[in-house]
Specification:
With 229 residues, this protein is mainly alpha-helical. It has eight helices and five strands. It has three domains: 56 residues, no CATH class; 92 residues, no CATH class; 57 residues.
């Protein structure tokens, strides 16, 4: 039967305790001296661990070895410890972000608690994280440490798994695509570029108003079945 690490160390220390050999020439027991390589081979350990066990036996006897870091809080400067002061504002940000930019899936039933909210295809985890950083530093001093992108993404998935990104080409608006094409063509003409850009922004504002109206109807329809989406 194989021994676990603690049991093996105790057995080896007991053998070292009752043999008369030196650190350079340990023995398997008091009557059977062995050369060091043979002892290491029999015990399945290396030279460093043997020396460590002999030193611990000399100072602590047969007591169990305890790693020096056990019970200590990791002293990592770049780690942000997660608590409600971090997770709650983050969720509030994502909820607000979904209200402004998101569009509920029209394929879900209005009473479905797992309704998905989709963000436009031009949004990504990275772009939303950048916006979150901007928001965070408007509320906190720049000396405060913000969570990393990977933590941001993990918490997003854990806290709001229903907030997703639309697949490419699933939210194409012909008007938006037309404006984007015009903006590219008008890059060489500053006046025309500005004119098209203003028209495009006005179109987006109207689309946001329609989205907000749709979201309001979603909320109202939960309590009033006469209201259609």
């Amino acid at each position: 039967m194989s021994l676990d690490k603690k049991e093996l160390e105790l057995v080896i220390k007991a053998q070292l305790m009752y043999c008369t050999s030196t650190i350079h020439n340990p023995g398997y027991n008091a009557s059977l001296p062995l050369c060091k390589p043979a002892f290491l081979k029999l015990c399945g350990i290396n030279d460093y661990l043997l020396g460590t066990l002999q030193n611990h036996l000399h100072t602590e006897g047969l007591s169990e070895r305890i790693h020096g870091n056990i019970g200590r809080i990791p002293m990592t400067d770049n780690r942000v410890f997660l608590n409600s002061e971090i997770t709650f504002p983050l969720k509030q940000f994502l909820v607000q972000y979904s209200c402004i930019h998101g569009l509920p899936s029209p394929l879900r039933h209005r009473n479905d608690s797992n309704t998905f909210i989709y963000l436009p295809t031009d949004r990504t985890y990275t772009s939303v994280y950048k916006e979150y950083k901007d928001y965070y530093y408007t509320e906190h001093d720049e000396s405060n440490q913000i969570i990393s992108y990977y933590t941001f993404r993990r918490l997003w998935i854990e806290m709001m798994p229903y907030l997703k990104f639309q697949a490419p080409a699933s939210d194409l608006c012909e008007i938006c695509e037309g404006f984007k094409a015009k903006i590219k063509v008008a890059k060489s003409d500053a006046d025309e570029h500005e004119k098209v850009q203003i028209q495009y922004e006005n179109h987006q504002k109207l689309a946001k108003l329609e989205r907000q109206h749709y979201n309001d109807n979603i909320e109202k329809s939960k309590n009033d079945l006469t209201i259609a989406h």
